[in-house]
Design a protein that fits this description.
CATH topology of the largest domain: 434 Repressor (Amino-terminal Domain)
Order of helices and strands: HHHHHH
Strand content: under 5%
Number of strands: 0
Distance between the termini: 79 Å
Low-confidence stretches: none
CATH superfamily of the largest domain: lambda repressor-like DNA-binding domains
Shape: elongated
Helix content: over 70%
């Protein structure tokens, strides 16, 4: 790729991995490739292969942004993605807490019934 900035691509790839996949290891497992390959991309040591970019695209990555830094117009902003991820985490925490409370209430009802 002519005039391709591997370092900037690597920075954007790191951000994309963190937001969408969690870690290089998780992404590598999902794609069935060696984590060192992805690590080489994130450190700017290798140019990405078309096959790798295609796999990222299938999993929702904005390839135009990864390659150029320009977002595709319909792609949600990374701020919205972070906000949605935080909201999902809060929902999960609330669900877990609700399950704990439900179990505790069931136990209290059993205890009450045993006393009567």
């Amino acid at each position: 790729m002519e005039d391709f900035d591997k370092i900037e691509f690597g920075k954007r790839l790191k951000e994309d991995i963190k937001l969408k996949f969690g870690s290089i290891k998780e992404l590598a497992e999902m794609l069935g490739i060696d984590p060192s390959t992805i690590s080489n991309y994130t450190r700017g040591q290798r140019e990405p292969r078309a096959k790798f970019l295609g796999m990222l695209a299938k999993h929702g990555s904005d390839i135009n942004w990864l390659l150029t830094g320009e977002k595709y117009k319909t792609e949600p902003s990374s701020d919205n993605l972070v906000k949605e991820k935080m909201e999902l985490h809060q929902i999960y925490e609330l669900q877990t807490r609700l399950e704990e409370i439900t179990k505790r209430l069931e136990q209290l009802e059993k205890d009450r019934d045993q006393q009567n």
